[in-house]
Design a protein that fits this description.
Shape: globular
Strand order of the largest sheet: 5-13-7-8-10
Strand content: 35-45%
Number of strands: 24
Number of helices: 1
Distance between the termini: 61 Å
Number of domains: 3
Largest sheet: 5 strands, antiparallel
Length: 272
């Protein structure tokens, strides 16, 4: 009956063994609890967002496609970038337009305005919405990664910029508006499948005071973003001792002792 300390807790939930065989710091049953930094913590509660709650829009990955007319609240025929599909949405203020058919009217909530969308031509039109209001398009694709870019000033970390990636686009979180906005320009489109997650790292590089965010998904070219070039630009480095041989894509990238290591299948290539 003596008391003894079991800490730190590292095993967490273990269900592939009978109770007497699991480690001392494991649990056969663990409900509404998580293991974090060696301690048992209550799982954060879920938060339900109503469709009319502004947070249900600002928290989503979205793309600005234009502004409604100042008088009528109309958006003329506009072609969205990338790929169109059923289930995608548009918003004008708090009004939501949902694509439920390949060509024709969209479902509108709350009622009042009207809109049409053609999945084949990727063309949207909106009539009678709130005047002079930004129209956002929500691609509604799987989110394949988040990245944190560490901005640099004089060799010191000056701030952070959050990025998100889906199958086609890169998005940047705007601290001023509290919303996600698409990063345009440069190599702006991706072509990843839902199974290709993004790998990323920050790298100082050879230029003093310049920090680079390097991202890869093993489908598209390796790309970088920095304060000098605020778009995602292809990075195609040449390998040492191999003329005309460049690294175009990799599974992941790792910084190590002032070098970048690119994982290419079973081998590692080094960028000086």
């Amino acid at each position: 009956m003596d008391k003894f300390l079991i800490a730190p807790i590292n095993s967490g939930l273990k269900t592939d063994r009978v109770p007497f065989m699991i480690p001392e710091d494991a649990f056969q049953r663990l409900e509404n609890m998580i293991i974090y930094e060696g301690a048992i913590r209550r799982r954060p509660p879920s938060l339900s967002l109503d469709i009319n709650d502004a947070r249900s829009l600002t928290s989503r990955l979205r793309i600005n496609i234009g502004t409604t007319n100042a008088v009528t609240g109309n958006l003329p025929a506009t072609v969205v970038p990338g790929t169109a599909a059923l289930g995608q949405q548009f918003s004008v203020g708090a009004t939501i337009f949902t694509v439920y058919q390949n060509n024709g009217a969209m479902h509108v909530s709350p009622a009042g305005a009207t809109g049409t969308f053609n999945v084949g031509t990727k063309t949207v039109t909106i009539t009678g919405a709130t005047p002079s209001t930004t129209v956002y398009w929500y691609p509604s694709q799987p989110v394949l990664g988040f990245a944190t870019y560490l901005t640099n000033t004089g060799g010191n970390v000056a701030g952070k910029i959050e990025f998100a990636f889906d199958q086609q686009f890169a998005y940047k979180y705007d601290l001023t508006t509290g919303c996600w906005e698409r990063v345009t320009g440069g190599a702006g489109l991706f072509s990843a499948s839902a199974l290709r997650r993004f790998s990323w790292t920050n790298f100082q590089g050879q230029v003093s005071g310049e920090s680079n965010l390097i991202v890869t998904n093993f489908v598209d070219n390796i790309r970088y973003y920095n304060d000098t070039t605020p778009t995602f630009t292809n990075l195609i480095p040449a390998t040492l001792g191999a003329a005309n041989y460049n690294v175009q894509r990799c599974k992941f990238v790792i910084p190590f002792r002032d070098r970048l290591f690119f994982s290419i299948r079973l081998s590692m290539k080094v960028l000086l």
